[in-house]
Amino acid sequence: MTSKQNILEQYPDALRWAFGDSPQLADELLQLVIAGEKTATCSSYVAYRQEKAPLVGDYSVILDGRGEARCVIRTRSLLLIRYCDVSAELAAKEGEGDKSLACWRRGHQAFFTREGTFAPDMWLVFEEFERVAILEGE
Asked: What is the Cα–Cα distance from 35 to 100, expressed in whole angstroms?
């Protein structure tokens, strides 16, 4: 069995980050990735430009709410899209709630409002990814 450390050594340049804006949300969204339910995420264009964000082909080590490495993903595509133009198909790829567009809009409007960027016509960077490794223990 390959250890967590051995797997992490395969991705020395990977970005390390957690989903969401709280430890609880980070853990909830991480579990969806591990379960294979979440294959996409999005960020405001403003946040994407301000943070070191993944490009197509990049690997990211996803952290849990305690900051521990839990899985590795690889960015497959990036799409610049307005919040109001996100489709039900795209929303479902985020794997959250009942996977409906209405649920996605409620959750993301709340998130982007907390971030201070929400507007119905705001630009988003929508990222599709594949999970490449789950990290268990040391």
From this structure: 18
